[in-house]
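As the next step, I selected for study one protein, both as residues and as discrete backbone shape codes, as given directly below:
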Amino acid sequence: MNQMSAEQEADSSQMLIEAARQARERAVATFSKFKVGAALETSDGTIVTGCNIENATYGLTMCAERVAMFKALSDGHRRFKAVAIVADTDSPTPPCGPCRQILWEFGRDLEVVLANLSRETGRFRLSQLLPCPFDASLLDKSPKPKA
């Protein structure tokens, strides 16, 4: 089994945070001015980034985390290790509810690393942020309709 040392893990987290910071710069936050970047690490070490993309209707806005996940899925990635999320805030900025759902459904219990423009602000397992997730396993256990 390939275990990373604490130093390698810290370097990996810093690379992920830096990728999210760079992605944040490409955000289209025309209305809120609240730029967010995300970087998703796949099981093979590939880093896929995303930024928030706003729309005038607001309802069609896409968060950085979902953009990163959908890009990764569309590129064929199916297994993930961690996601870093960066915003220009002093306190941790965790993923919103819909992003937590998408991250859980496709990434399971990812490590979630939160950071701002200068430092890491928090670190969680996704199960801490979404303690009772809804996923496909519940659909498999639902009662079948009678014929």
